[in-house]
Amino acid sequence: MFSKGGKRIVKQLPVNRQIRAKEIRLIGEGGEQLGVVPVPRALQIARERDLDLVEVSPTATPPVCRLLDYGKYRYEQAKKERGTKRGQKVGLLKELRLSAKIEEHDLQAKIKTAKKLLEDGNRLRLVLRLRGRENVYPELGLKTLQKAAEALKEVAVGDHPVKQAKVITLTLSPIPGKKTKGVQEDAKA
Q1: What global pTM score does this model have?
Q2: What domains are defined for the chain?
Q3: 3-state secondary structure 33-56
Q4: Strand pairing partners for 38?
Q5: Mind listing the pLDDT tens digit for each residue in 151-170?
Q6: I need a labelling partner for 22 at 20 to 30 A (CA). Which of 11, 46, 122, 134 fits?
Q7: Farthest-apart Cα atoms in the chain, separation
Q8: Residue pLDDT, tens place only, 53-70
């Protein structure tokens, strides 16, 4: 079974005539052991009970097969897998742009936005682009980034600023031990 992106959701298992072993260990629909039986006999039992014979453990000796409704099984597995994917949150990398000559009030507004993003569980990249004569004085840009990092130290941990040509970047990650707003809202629900 495939999802929209073409990725396999549920692992395909050998069913009925696809099973190549001569003898198998058979497990009934309720989980009871039916013993070691030849495959033709197991297929006959499956047909009588209107179920499928599914190989669940091909590496065991003899291979283990189970009597179940394979369509229903695949549906439940896909549903379970979608549920686990829904619970996961991929930490996105957001970006905020600053300038070396940013005014204090504007910087505080950017810091407030950065705090919200970090509390939501996102990683954040502060980007400071040096223009014109600012290239001669990169320490002004570093000072601005350090001021922002200092203000955000209670909600995030950051790397060292990295200067590449005319751009200085600082990547911040939310503190792992702290619960973020998104996680707290999920816990309440």
Answers
A1: 0.49
A2: 16-87 (3.10.20.80), 93-188 (3.30.110.10)
A3: EEEEEEHHHHHHHHHHCCCEEEEE
A4: 23
A5: 998 888 888 888 888 899 99
A6: 11
A7: 85
A8: 888 888 888 888 889 888
